[in-house]
């Protein structure tokens, strides 16, 4: 109902006039198919196409889930030994995160998640600092983002 409140009467009439011929095609087309004796053939073709589309969508979803499961990120072999402990902190943080709490369409929430992640890593490398995130330099932060982006493109 909110949509109709935002439209004035003339726009609503224009929308109805546009939709009327399209809506009339369904019953008139079905009537014509029934008259010519092709209704059951058309229904069978519609069911077959729908089943094929559903099956293809189901297969693609399973394939995407398999690819996502295979794309698990592992620590880089070129990292120094101290980075493995930082990686464990990130793994623990990722295990505690619930995806429903961090919707992809909310940029501010994702920014907070990224900041929390950087803060956890900075706290590991600079435990004596009151604000360890400030110890990360801009070039170092950009390098982290670039490497993460490179890894994401590679998977």
Count of helix runs: 6
Quaternary status of these chains? single chain
State the end-to-end distance.
Answer: 45 Å
* Biggest β-sheet description: none
Mean model confidence by pLDDT: 85
β-strand percent reads under 5%
SSE string, helices as H and strands as E: HHHHHH
Number of domains: 2
How many β-strand runs? 0
- Give the overall shape: elongated
Low-confidence stretches: none
Task: Work out the helicity level.
Answer: over 70%
Gyration radius, to the nearest Å?
A: 28 Å
Derived structural class: mainly alpha
Entry summary:
With 155 residues, this protein is mostly helical. The chain has 6 helices and no strands.
Task: Explain what the structure shows.
The chain has 155 residues and is mainly alpha-helical. The protein folds into 2 domains: 66 residues, no CATH class; 82 residues, no CATH class. Helix content is 75%, strand content 0%. The protein is built from 6 helices and no strands. The longest helix is centred in the middle third of the chain and has 32 residues.
């Amino acid at each position: 109902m909110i949509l109709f409140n935002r439209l004035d009467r003339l726009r609503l009439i224009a929308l109805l006039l546009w939709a009327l011929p399209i809506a009339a095609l369904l019953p008139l087309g079905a009537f014509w198919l029934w008259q010519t004796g092709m209704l059951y053939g058309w229904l069978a073709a519609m069911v077959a196409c729908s089943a094929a589309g559903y099956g293809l969508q189901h297969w693609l979803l399973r394939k995407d889930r398999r690819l996502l499961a295979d794309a698990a990120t592992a620590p880089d072999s070129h990292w120094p030994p101290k980075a493995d402990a930082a990686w464990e902190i990130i793994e623990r943080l990722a295990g505690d995160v619930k995806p429903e709490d961090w919707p992809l369409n909310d940029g501010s929430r994702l920014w907070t998640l990224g900041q929390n992640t950087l803060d956890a890593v900075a706290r590991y490398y600079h435990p004596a600092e009151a604000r360890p995130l400030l110890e990360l330099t801009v070039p170092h932060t950009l390098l982290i983002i670039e490497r993460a982006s490179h890894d994401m493109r590679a998977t």
